[in-house]
Amino acid sequence: MKLSRCPVCHSNLHLDALVNDAAASELLALIAPLDGGLGRALVAYIGLFRPAKSDLSFSRALKLAEETLSLCSNRDWLRVALGQTVASIRAGRASGQPRALTNHNYLKKVLSSIDDQAVIVPSKPAKAMSSIEIKSSGHVETLAETQAKWEAQMAKYKQAAAVKCHNGRKR
After folding, report:
1. Nearest 5°: phi and psi at 3?
2. Shortest CA distance to 59 belongs to which of 67, 147, 132, 161?
3. DSSP single-letter state for residue 13
4. Which of 58, 94, 132, 139 can bridge 24 by disulfide, Cβ–Cβ 3.0-4.6 Å?
């Protein structure tokens, strides 16, 4: 089944070809359940390993993805580290360093430099969580504050809806 065209080389992309290749199928199964931010960051990171004059094989991409996901159990930290790594390496390539990555050492260094302030953490135990704390801003929004904001926003919408007449024009 033809899905679409590759935006880079304009060749046809076939879903059945991806599913029939064992490594490609496993790679899709590994990436599919990840949340969007982590999945996109992981794919961008794996792309940094592609040699300039050839393609990255699905088996190599699968191995890299598995290795990357095993580096850190905290997926928020990993997502942030992957984003920082990709941005840094791409900036380096733009300034004339086009070499492909060969190992995860740079990512490991970025992971070790990430601290708790860059990550959203629960302010209470998971089963009693009523709010979250974003440590970088220093403010904890309580459930009551969140509800008050929501109610204020809903009041604005209700007021705007009351002003409109049945045919959609304002009075």
Report:
1. -85, -60
2. 67
3. E
4. 58
H or E element: which one contains 134?
strand 132-134
Number of neighbours of residue 19 by Cβ within 10 angstroms: 13
The angle at the Cα of 35, spanning 89 to 142, to the nearest 5 degrees, equals 105
pLDDT recorded at residue 67: 95
Angle between helices 75-94 and 58-70 (to 10 degrees): 130
Whether the predicted model's global pTM rises above the 0.70 cut? no
| Interatomic CA distance for residues 140 and 161, integer angstroms | 32
Average pLDDT over residues 132-139: 51
**pLDDT tens, residue by residue, 26-80:** 988 899 899 878 999 999 999 999 887 888 888 999 999 999 999 988 888 899 9
